[in-house]
Amino acid sequence: MVNKADLLNTKQMATFVAKGFLRFDELVPPEINTAIMAEIDGGDITAAAAGTPLSQCYPPPSAIGQMLRMPQIEGIIQSLVGPDPLFDHQAVHVRQPNEDSAQGMHGDSIIDTRMHFDIQLMYFPHDVPLEMGGTLVVPGSQYRRINEMDIARYQNFLGQVNMVCKAGTILVLHHGIWHCGRQNKTNQKRYMFKVRLNPRVRQLRLWNTDDLPANVGAHKAIFTRDTNKVEDVQTILGRTEPWFENATGRLEIINRIKMWRFLTGDEQFDVHYWLTRLENMPENRELAA
Amino acid sequence: MSNLRQKVLVLYLANSALDSKVTGWSIYDGTGKEPHTTGDSDTPPYKTGLDALKAGWRVIQFPQLIPPYPNMEYTTSFQMYEFIFEKLEDAA
Ligand SMILES: [Fe+2]
């Protein structure tokens, strides 16, 4: 049973819906990091069959299991994909020293048009400096409909995030996010452990919604500085990424509104009137008379 | 055979105007001198597509403006404004 305090809050959830990822720096303690490095080096991390409930994976004394069963990590997982999700697959990524090039930009698996989403939990067991590469993610790319490596032509985007981090950092990703493993220019191997999880429940208000205001989608004066400076769900979902095209960036706000409606069940929710305007198709003839 | 090799610059712009802001970029260097790869730079090589022209790049592709397919008006996918440039440089 996950403690409410370990679940994500509404703003974290809105950030995930907008950007497609959340990062938690230095969440895992050094003793677990060391134990996991030893498991990786020993080739001891065995994968369960795809579709196995996570609670049946990595039984003690697995250090990976110990990490995944940390209350904060269970809270993150439960907030996004619900209790005891299904284990899809794991990957122990080892990038060799002094690589010639990075991995091409891609979305994992294949094109996936669901509203339901899987998460990929990435775990960095040791410090990752910039020269070592680390995962690159493109914030806000998760709703773009592309198929895997079809985007490998894209080398860099304004606002891309390089996972430069300390040991024990966790990154959770929406399955659709564009990412790649950056080039390792150091003379040390780089490790990363990833697990993909599938929800078994409808993804509806799974986080700690105590701070979800009833008027979260209320209409406000739009295109005003006063509205935009309030850091609320609408502002978080309405903030475009530096790499978005001017016009397509507005469509990404629509994608986020639809996801927020899906996650909250609130079909009236809107961000700054974008969708309400399109849904207005009046049939009132009396007023016209 | 001449020593000239093609260097290709791909710029993703904020809209269909060549002088709009660069939001993404890729470089392929046929001279073999610059080994570009994914995630190798956080700063665009030029602020706008026009700036690339001013620096001597020749534009060889403008993205066509294609109306959205019916029922796909709100679907987002690839980068919309992909401009391709080239330069010929001495490989020697
Ligand atoms: Fe990947």
Name the features.
heterodimer, A: 289 residues, alpha+beta, Jelly Rolls, 2 domains, six-stranded antiparallel beta sheet, three-stranded antiparallel beta sheet, B: mainly beta, four-stranded antiparallel beta sheet, 1 helix, 4 strands, binds fe (ii) ion
Give the helix/strand layout.
The complex is a heterodimer of chains A (289) and B (92).
Chain A: H1 10-19, E1 21-24, H2 30-41, E2 52-53, H3 63-68, H4 71-81, E3 86-95, E4 119-124, E5 134-137, E6 156-157, E7 161-162, E8 169-174, E9 179-182, E10 190-198, H5 225-229, H6 233-238, H7 246-264, H8 274-279
Antiparallel strand pairs in A: 1-8, 2-3, 3-10, 4-8, 4-10, 5-7, 5-9
Chain B: E1 4-13, E2 22-29, H1 49-54, E3 58-61, E4 82-90
Antiparallel strand pairs in B: 1-2, 1-4, 3-4
The structure holds fe (ii) ion (FE2).
Distance between the termini of chain A: 60 Å
- Round the Cα radius of gyration of chain A to an integer and report it: 20 Å
E-strand count of chain B: 4
Remind me, CATH topology of the largest domain in chain A? Answer: Jelly Rolls
Structural class of chain B: mainly beta
Q: Which ranges of chain B are low-confidence, i.e. pLDDT below 50, for 5 or more consecutive residues?
A: none
Q: Based on the structure, what is the oligomeric state of the protein chains?
A: heterodimer
* Residue share in β-strands of chain A: 15-25%
SSE string of chain A? HEHEHHEEEEEEEEHHHH
